[in-house]
Amino acid sequence: MKQFPIKKILILAAILAVPGFLYYLLQDKGKNRYKPLAIYGPKTVAATFHTVRGKQIPDTIYHVLNDFKLINQNADTLTLSSFKGKVILVNLFHTQNPGHGVITAHNAMQAFSKLYEKNKMLQFVSLSIDPNVDTQIKLSKFAEEASVNANKWSLLTGDSTQLKSLITGGLLLDALKRTTNNEVKFFYSNMFVLIDTKNRIRGYYEATNQEALSKLDDEIKVLVAEELRNMRDGR
Question: Which of helix, strand or coil describes residue 41?
């Protein structure tokens, strides 16, 4: 009987082992392996602990958005609890003499809202930095002209003090309106801010930077995956 060469046996064994090895990598090494997004804002170490693999780890208290009561384009009153369980993408805007930055951000937000229209976990919010001009009636007309879906994308206005608190104290952004020689100018952080279901800031992205917007698209998916994983694990 002719013996099967040892070299061919080793090659055959290697071929047969590859699928199993790849499966192992995907199921074990690849499982849950992605870099979590950062959590922005001030944080403090709590007096409580949680256990990870038998070790006690101090809990961390993270910065979260403060509550608010504002009105959307449909005259509905919304609070932070209105977005409970949602991943929120927030930006700032104004309707009075919008420049390139406002228009670019608006177009990007519109594109994201359509892209994730069927994803029930995602909600989009634009906060007016000019509430005296951007009344509910003004926002209603603006939303109609821009075909904004209120179920997916909320344009919010209301009390200027609450808006300032939410923008500067909650989102940690800057927003300033100045009038010089009867000319109104706005100075503000033209950023998209990604918020998780625990109301924590998970990312900042320049609204006029295409590379930043591509990164935002990727990180929306990462955050949604993280939230679904936490829901599954009961966290």
Answer: coil
Predicted confidence (pLDDT) per residue in 84-130, tens digit = 999 999 999 999 888 899 999 999 999 999 999 999 999 999 999 99
C-beta separation of 196 from 223 below 8 A = yes
For the beta carbon of residue 185, count every other beta carbon within 10 angstroms. Answer: 11
Q: Where are the domains of the chain?
A: 64-233
pLDDT digits (tens, 9 = 90+) for 178-188: 888 888 889 99
Q: Can you tell me the distance from the alpha carbon of 56 to that of 50, in angstroms, rounded to the nearest whole number?
A: 6
Report the relative pairing of strands 175-180 and 43-52 from DSSP bridges: unpaired
- Report d(CA 235, CA 218) in Å as an integer: 23
CB environment 23-53: b (16+ within 10 A), e (fewer): eeeeeeeeeeeeeebebbeeeeeeeeeeeee
Instruction: List the one residue out of 161, 143, 163 whose CA is nearest residue 152.
Output: 143
- CA angle (64 as vertex; 31, 76 as ends), nearest 5: 105
The alpha carbon of 46 is separated from its chain's Cα centroid by a whole number of angstroms, namely 26
Q: Read off the pTM.
A: 0.82
CATH 3.90.1150.10 fits 64-233, yes or no: no
